[in-house]
Amino acid sequence: MAREQDGEAVTAQLSTRDRLILLGVARDSIRRSIDGHRLEDPALDAYAATLTPIRACFVTLETAGALRGCIGTLKARRPLVTEVAHMARAAALEDPRFPRVTQPELAGLRISISVLSVAEPMQFGSEAELVGMLRPGVDGLILRDGYRSGTFLPSVWDKLPQPVDFVRQLKRKAGLPPDHWSTALTVERYTTESFSEEP
């Protein structure tokens, strides 16, 4: 069964059945990719209309509670069920932080999916003002300054529950000093509908 996670969008848009189908698509995509099969886009007419809108998503993989891969897109570009299949494959085989997932690991792999809302720009005049606007456990952020950028999903609040730490570690992820500030810095926020396989 699917399990809801913290940071889920206030209003869920996917039914339990929809979530289970997407988790199954992700697992099948990973299994087939590990076995060397070419990734084929799902046949959209075989899925409910709730699974075919153009949506952005991230797929996260864990083994024994430790991160094993996470790949996603911030911009909606493909039908949700198709994006899940592609991001699952990428998380298993293409995350540069980890070796490729192997067949023996598959049974112990836990899959989570985060479906993103459309990102909205935030207006602020200082870091303190930005920090004061954040909703811990709800907001995902996209931070940009020049050619440097980074994002934290809402699930990162579990590890960084203080808004000031959330912002400063996101700067670090973007390749900026934690105390960096400039008028060119921009931040967008989004929410996610997040769910995962039962442990």
List its salient traits:
199 residues, Dna Ligase, domain 1, 2 domains, 5-stranded antiparallel beta sheet, 4-stranded antiparallel beta sheet, disordered N terminus
Name the helicity range.
25-40%
**Oligomeric grouping of the chains:** single chain
- What's the order of the H and E elements? EHEEHEEHEEHEE
Strand order of the largest sheet: 1-9-4-2-3
Poorly predicted tracts of residues: 1-11
> Which fold does the CATH topology of the largest domain refer to?
Glycoprotein, Type 4 Pilin
Shape: globular
- The helix/strand class is alpha+beta
CATH superfamily of the largest domain: Hypothetical protein ph0010, domain 1
Q: How many separate domains?
A: 2
Architecture (CATH level 2) name of the largest domain: 2-Layer Sandwich
Described by strand count, sense and barrel closure, the largest sheet is: 5 strands, antiparallel
In the CATH scheme, the class of the largest domain would be Alpha Beta
